Amino acid sequence: MFLAATSLLFKIRVLTSNYKRFIVTSGEIPIRSYQVVVAATRDMGIGKDGKLPWRLPSDLKFFKEITSGTTDPVKQNAVLMGRKTWESIPIRYRPLPGRLNVVLTRSFEIKNEANVVTCGSISSALELLAKAPYCFSIDKVFVIGGGQILRETLNGPRCDAIHVTRIETSVECDTFIPSIDFSMFQPWYSSPLLVENGIQYSFVTYVHVRSSEDGTIARKTDGKCNDVKSNSNGFDVENFSFLPKMIFEKRDKYMPHSRSIK
Description:
Enzyme class: oxidoreductase
Strand content: 25-35%
Largest sheet: 9 strands, mixed
Family: Belongs to the dihydrofolate reductase family.
InterPro entries: DHFR, DHFR-like_dom_sf, DHFR_CS, DHFR_dom
Keywords: NADP, One-carbon metabolism, Oxidoreductase
Distance between the termini: 44 Å
Number of helices: 7
Order of helices and strands: HEEEEEHEHEEHHEHEEEEEH
GO biological process, one term: dihydrofolate metabolic process
Radius of gyration: 18 Å
């Protein structure tokens, strides 16, 4: 009976002391979880003609800070992107400095580039990052685009958080991603409405809320950021130590009556 029970596949979530998260399935290879960083309109438009249809230096600064900051100064983060996203980065800025650049491609080779690795799929990249040496050197994993990669990862079971620069101004786009599934993700932090170069926008972070059995218990909030300490199941939505430190700092700044992890 015991042997039969232990042979069943089961999933557990592991949070290590340095906040590195994996999803481990019995009998399978450990796989890293990840966070998504994206700028999108209300209808989830993210680009036009292969470019960002807005100019927001503050968003670029936010992107650099959130993907570069680590809890351990001797480690770095990994950024996962598709080939087109890699090629859209100006040559003088790639690879993105201070981060392991993971480019997803099955045919494209990047030769003689330090701090760059290529993988054939999202799953193979997450498996690679769960193995040595990357499991020791990589702090957090961020998915940054493009459209196809985001469509595959945005509401995925291994997605821990979604950091959205929400574009409130109407902007024409030709590339779209799915809406955030609010039955799985709960708003955790939202900035006030900001304006730059005639574009209204805000920064919003959603967290994937799970019970101790790894089941989803997020309330349906229609994307509104409610300042709550816990939901009806008693789950403390603020105990998300895997989030970047800057997100805690911004929550304290814009929502000072909330309680952060110390």
